[in-house]
Amino acid sequence: MSAPGDLIDWAGVTHVPAVMPVRIACLVPSLTELLFALGLGPTMVARTGFCIHPSPAVRQVPKIGGTKDPDLVRLQVLAPTHLIVNVDENRREVVDAARAFVPQIVVTHPSGPLDNQRLFALFGAIFDRADEAANMTKTLNAALADAMATTAALPRERVLYLIWKEPWMTVTRDTYVGATLATVGLDVVPAAAASRYPVVNDGDAVWRDAERILLSTEPYAFRERDRQALATATGKSVALVDGEWTSWYGVRAAPGLRALADWRMQLPPSELPPTELPPTP
Questions:
Q1: Residues 226-244: what's their mean pLDDT?
Q2: Which residues are CB-neighbours of 236 under 8 A, at least 6 positions away?
Q3: 253-256-260-262 Cα dihedral, nearest 10 degrees
Q4: Contacts of 150 (CB under 8 A, 6+ apart)
Q5: Which has more pLDDT, 2 or 78?
Q6: Is 34 exposed, middle or buried (0-12, 13-18, 19+ CB in 10 A)?
Q7: pTM (predicted TM-score)
Q8: DSSP secondary structure letter of residue 139
Q9: Which residues make Cβ contacts (< 8 Å) with residue 40, sequence separation at least 6?
Q10: Burial letters 71-88, b for 16+ CB under 10 A, else e
Q11: Which of 144, 143, 140, 137 has the alpha carbon at shortest distance from 123?
């Protein structure tokens, strides 16, 4: 059973339980997957081209562009009753424009694995899926506990987690990715910056401070050739990591945490660089 506080989204808006039938549009890939996991797939009328899970069922939902630049004219024609958005994924001006024709806009902003509890409760309360949400929370809690226990004996490492190239971009510790990595003993550098997703320049301290460099498979699709080139340029231990394990909240968070913990257990010891020369992109 849902509690009254479960209906409050990350923008501080208190929603009312939806009256079926609903028409849901979602501009957040991981939350499209969550809606399907809650049995709400048949109610979806729009998604982004990056909403790829669960396949093949999600292909039945019309695409309206990307997370940053959805086709608002097309969205209006599809007449959603609810639009699901995220602070990091979607642009404020897009969301504000959609308010003119979407009755309910649900704003999300999970900043760590535990925030999935609130996310499940919010969706469960709005869309009458409280029991399903409670089961997801149990699964999440077990996965989080197991991931932390699995890696508890390993020494903590400082890592530079790169999400983009030309320019290099990373994440800080107050992001969902940073918090997820911390659960398995990997502390991102820089700890904080003016931006939560800062650009990394040649010569920045993070290249020296990091004990290991991690290349995410998304949003930039780093590959083995990138790993080899950066390892050569920096002298650091460089590893590829599945970005879905670290950045997809919602129903994928639990298996992602387990996979991330297993992956960390298999990492070889990091190697300190022979010099402190800046990297060559």
A1: 97
A2: 207, 210, 211, 212, 213, 230, 270, 271, 272, 273
A3: 120
A4: 184, 261, 262, 265
A5: 78
A6: buried
A7: 0.92
A8: H
A9: 22, 24, 127, 129
A10: ebeebeeeebbbbbbbeb
A11: 137
